[in-house]
Write a structure and sequence with these properties.
two-stranded antiparallel ribbon, 7 helices, 2 domains, 6 strands, two-stranded parallel sheet
């Protein structure tokens, strides 16, 4: 996929499923890849493939031909900025399977994939009502830990931001603001199992970028 951006990384995980899926074949494909942003891995025990199979079957309708136990293969996972493999698998923002293009041959839609990545890399849209819209989203996902008086709220969480205050974001640093977008997207934190929807993440992202820009403009 021809995508001119230094802000994206490609990780190829080669999995032995068919008889032709050998280490030598994976190395041959890897050696033909000239993109410096690409890294290649050989999942000889199908560890990653099996780890993602069950959640993808539930979320994306992975077919019964995935095997038993199921294996996630021939699939492209798109992750948001900040995704990290640090003990728990991050949640992909988008999942793409190959499409039947005739004569028993399937292929990925490279134009669609490129469009998804380009959209993820694009700046957040500017909205005049970004604060109000972002507040509703943050309240929906973070109120239990970040609202004074809630049994689950801790002093540490409230010190970062308190939704009981009208200007709840004023206590957040720029790093905290950007981290809130990452957490809402399910990359890490308590929302990993129930991340916000892409449009909701975009609303908060718009507010975050507007708030950071506003602070920079204040002398």
């Amino acid at each position: 996929m021809n995508l001119d951006s230094s802000s994206v990384r490609f990780y190829f995980v080669w999995v032995p499923v068919l008889e032709t899926d050998t280490l030598a074949a994976a190395q041959e494909h890897a050696s033909a890849e000239r993109d410096s942003r690409a890294s290649h891995f050989w999942d000889v025990r199908q560890t990653l493939a099996r780890s993602y199979a069950t959640p993808l079957r539930a979320r994306e309708g992975l077919g019964e031909d995935a095997g038993d136990p199921p294996i996630a293969w021939d699939v492209v996972l798109l992750f948001p900025r900040g995704a990290r493999w640090d003990g728990k698998l991050p949640t992909p923002a988008q999942v793409h399977f190959p499409r039947d293009v005739g004569r028993d041959f399937a292929a990925f839609d490279s134009a669609e994939l490129k469009g998804e990545v380009a959209t993820a890399l694009a700046p957040c849209p500017v909205r005049s009502d970004s604060r109000q819209a972002a507040t509703k989203v943050v309240e929906a996902y973070c109120s239990s830990c970040h609202t004074a008086g809630n049994p689950k709220a801790t002093p540490k969480a409230l010190a970062i931001f308190d939704l009981a205050k009208t200007e709840w974001a004023t206590t957040m640093s720029a790093d905290h603001l950007r981290e809130s977008v990452v957490r809402l997207a399910g990359v890490r934190g308590p929302t990993r199992d129930h991340p916000a929807q892409p449009n909701e993440v975009s609303l908060v992202c718009s507010f975050v970028e507007a708030e950071i820009a506003r602070r920079k403009s204040v002398p």
